[in-house]
Every structure is written in C-alpha cells, then in structure tokens.
C-alpha cells in the first residue's frame, strides 16, 4: 500500500484552481489540466514510502510485477498497470479527438517508430501501442460532445445557416445511408473546400444571432459552438461540433468513450479512468499536433447517442460503474461514519482517490489518513477497510 503523488499536466485548456484545490495545494497561476495517478511511462506518479523515497510507481511495479499486480493481471496485460486514473479540469474545449483500438494503436506506433519520429516529438500521434477507452465520472456539472447525431437531426441543426460550407455539408448528410452521409459530411467539414475557411466566421455570427433571437434548434449545441469559436476562432471544429451529440453530466453521473468515438470535453471537473495510454488522434480545436486524415481513418461514423453508464449497487456504500472493457472499472465508495467501515475489495491492483471528506484507510496495524485529493496504490491481495465520513473512487481491473 503506497501513497501517491500525481504527475501534473499543465495544458492551456485547464483550470488554474480546480485541481490544486482538490489536492490541497496553493494555485500558482499555471493551468493544471490533469493530475495522473498511475504508472504510464509519459507521466508516472511518485511513490511516497520510506522504502522507495524517489521512485515512480512504474519503477516500483517493475521490482515485483506479479507480487504487486497479481498473476491474473500479468497474464492478461503483461507486467504493467493496465489502467490510468486522472483528475481532469477543462475550462476551455479540448481538441476534437478519437482514441485508437489496440490494432490501430499498434500499427500507428510501428509506423511512426520506423519513420524515426521521437516518442517525445510534439508531432507524434501514437505515444504507445495501447488502446484508450475511457470513462468519465463527473464531480461537477460536466459538458462534453460525444458521438455523431443522426443525419436528420444534424440537418435540423444546420437549417437556416447560410454559407456554401453549410449547404455542401447538408448535401453530403443526405448521401447514402446514415453512416455514409455522416462520414462524407464530417470529412468535408474538416478537410474540404479550403478556399471557404472564411465561412466559419460567417456561420458563427449567424449562430450568435439565432441564439439572441431565440430561434436556435438547439441552445446547447449553439452555445458550445460559440464557446469553441471564442477559444479557436476560424477553426472548422466549430462546424464539426454541430454534427456531434452535446452531453451534460451531473455530479455523480458517468459516460463511457470507446475506441473510435469522436468526442471533446468542454468544461467541468471529473475523474477519468482509462486504459493506460496517451494515444490521442486530433482533428481540430487545438494547438497540438493535428492529423485529421488519421482520425478519419479510425473514427466510428455510425450515429449513436453518448454511452451513459448506470452504477450497479454492489453492497452498502459501494456503487460500481462497469465499462465494456477488460482494462478497468470504477467504484464509488461512500463512508458514513467511523464505526461503519467499508471494505475496499476488488482484487488485483487498485488505486483509491479521496474525493470528499476525511477518511482513514486501514490495513492490519497500518492506518493512513486520506483527505480530499489523497491517493493510495493497493497491491494484489491487499484488502483494507476505509472509515470516516466521505467518498473515494476506486479504480481497478475487472
């Protein structure tokens, strides 16, 4: 059982205060977009332990993979922690992005390795060979875009917006069956008619006007489009966003994003758990490396609603969000008093992160205090109990 110090990511879309506040640290004016609790090579947590004063979690796991991860996890995933837990706090829209499948990641990584692109090169697309399905659990109201609308609904959103880019997008949405129409329209919005880039600003003005007049077919979609336009003026992601489903998660709600699902987080604070990967293929709305053609090669264009997950009530004080993948699951554990301890079971390696209150985690004679933002790594076979008043999340392997 090891206490963890997260690796911080200072991306410019992050809040300057939300994550420092959760971690109990003073804000220093820098944006803190993410805090990583895990053992990913691009940002492993530090371990706070007298036996390992300067080691990362990935280094500690390497000392005894089977003892810390368990035979079952090593046999299925190899000698590495298969999941990554994050705090995420966007105050501006993230990039329009897709995560690859296992096969797509392996092929992309080999291709870039053979081309000689460094793993740390900002122009690199594939950082590792893993897929990156992910689950988001909202701590505050969280706004996002996820998956494609049906062509019929997208045409309703575009109706009344007058510009050649829009007219041609609507024409493509009507082409063939729904997935064909979506692919044709999405590709055109991202890459077609480069001489019509000025249409984006014209459409933004029309969206603002119809919002003001109260004639918008979707207040939510138009508000997000204007938010993207403020952060990324002239970016075609503004138009692409109108093809996607807007999502609002209330605190305590969760959403799953599978490989191939186009999405963008917009604002809020949440906990993410995902396969241990940093593979992000971006097409718009970012200053980072964009590879729209690669995204179009792997995106799932079938119209579908966002995948909201309902928790399963496992036992008193424990609700589990099961994702349709083998890499991770997320449990939310609520503790209501010092005399009502709750077991942190699950088996295999786990990371627990306190998100509310003051808690104590007890393993044999060892007692560790967990205040909000504190995290612990639990090895296979370690089944402590938690007591106090508050909540924590437990990421683990199904």
From TrEMBL:
InterPro entries named in the record: Man6P_Isoase-1 (IPR001250), Mannose-6-P_Isomerase (IPR016305), Pmannose_isomerase-type1_CS (IPR018050), PMI_typeI_cat (IPR046457), RmlC-like_jellyroll (IPR014710), RmlC_Cupin_sf (IPR011051)
Keyword Isomerase: yes
Keyword set includes Repressor: no
Database matches in Pfam families: PMI_typeI_cat (PF20511)
Cofactor(s), by name: Zn(2+)
Cofactor descriptive note: Binds 1 zinc ion per subunit.
Domain of life per record: Bacteria
GO biological process, one term: carbohydrate metabolic process
Active site positions, chain numbering: 282
Catalytic activity from the UniProt record: D-mannose 6-phosphate = D-fructose 6-phosphate
EC number: 5.3.1.8
Gene Ontology terms, MF aspect: mannose-6-phosphate isomerase activity; zinc ion binding
Family from the record: Belongs to the mannose-6-phosphate isomerase type 1 family.
Official protein name in the record: mannose-6-phosphate isomerase
Species whose genome carries this gene: Serinibacter arcticus
């Amino acid at each position: 059982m090891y206490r963890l110090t997260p690796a911080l990511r200072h991306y410019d879309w992050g809040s300057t205060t939300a994550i420092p506040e959760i971690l109990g640290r003073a804000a220093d004016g820098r944006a803190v977009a993410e805090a990583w609790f895990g053992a990913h090579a691009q940002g492993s947590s530090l371990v706070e332990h007298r036996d390992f004063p300067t080691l990362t979690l990935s280094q500690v796991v390497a000392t005894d993979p089977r003892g810390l991860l368990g035979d079952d996890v090593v046999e299925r995933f190899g000698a590495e922690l298969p999941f990554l837990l994050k705090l995420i706090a966007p105050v501006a829209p993230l990039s329009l992005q897709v995560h690859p499948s296992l096969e797509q990641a392996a092929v992309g990584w080999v291709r870039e390795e053979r081309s000689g692109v460094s793993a740390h090169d900002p122009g690199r697309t594939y950082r590792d060979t893993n897929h990156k399905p992910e689950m988001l659990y909202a701590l505050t109201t969280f706004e996002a875009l996820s998956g494609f609308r049906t062509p019929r609904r997208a045409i309703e959103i575009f109706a009344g917006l007058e510009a050649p880019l829009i007219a041609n997008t609507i024409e493509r949405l009507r082409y063939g069956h729904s997935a064909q129409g979506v692919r044709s329209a999405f590709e055109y919005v991202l890459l077609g008619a480069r001489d019509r880039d000025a249409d984006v600003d014209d459409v933004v003005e029309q969206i603002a006007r119809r919002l003001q007049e109260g004639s918008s077919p979707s207040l939510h979609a138009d508000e997000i489009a204007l938010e993207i336009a403020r952060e990324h003026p002239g970016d075609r992601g503004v138009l692409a966003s109108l093809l996607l489903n807007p999502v609002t998660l209330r605190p305590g709600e969760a959403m799953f994003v599978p490989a191939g699902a186009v999405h963008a987080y917009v604002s809020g604070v949440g906990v993410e758990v995902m396969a241990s990967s940093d593979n992000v293929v971006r097409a718009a709305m970012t200053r980072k490396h964009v590879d729209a053609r690669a995204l179009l090669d792997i995106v799932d264009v079938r119209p579908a609603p966002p995948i909201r997950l309902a928790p399963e009530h496992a036992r008193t004080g424990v609700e589990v969000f099961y994702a349709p993948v083998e890499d991770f699951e997320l449990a939310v554990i609520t503790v209501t008093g010092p005399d009502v301890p709750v077991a942190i079971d699950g088996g295999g390696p786990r990371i627990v992160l306190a998100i509310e209150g003051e808690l104590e985690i007890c393993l044999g004679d060892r007692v560790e205090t967990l205040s909000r933002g504190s995290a612990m790594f639990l090895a296979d076979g370690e089944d402590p109990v938690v007591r106090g008043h508050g909540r924590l999340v437990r990421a683990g392997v199904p």
